[in-house]
Amino acid sequence: MTIKPLIILPDPILRQVSAPIERVDDELLKLADDMLETMYDAPGIGLAGIQIGVPRRILVIDVAREDEEKQPQVFINPEIVKSSDERSVYEEGCLSIPEYYAEVERPATVTVKHIGRDGKEHLVEADGLLATCLQHEIDHLNGVLFIDHISRLKREMVIKKFTKAAKAKAV
Prior knowledge:
The chain is an alpha+beta fold.
């Protein structure tokens, strides 16, 4: 397994819409393993393909607490097919926007259709942290960042900060 470099804001690739995956093969499963390794190393609880520069509809998640055994999950071509009217608020962060956190309101529960590592279609009903994480990572596949769910003023300040940091790094 290989740890991949993370794409960081303001890189425009983060706004790209990821392409559907045609088939589950060894190459895709290796990508999933590399993504899990990268996510654990960061450390994070979710990672979308686009965050390592791969614009394909794949994401990995593990919301197990530190004192629990790892529970890696792979979602290929995930799609939210149902979401609740009830809302919940979580403080979200993102590996592509390091060390920035903000409260985001999203549906409290979602049902996600996806293809698993086994190449078969699955349906997951999620609530709590898993529901939030799935929505956050699926947003990535659609070119949406969690900062798009906060006020325009806060979003512009974050983008400005990361743009300035990227320019300073390039010098």
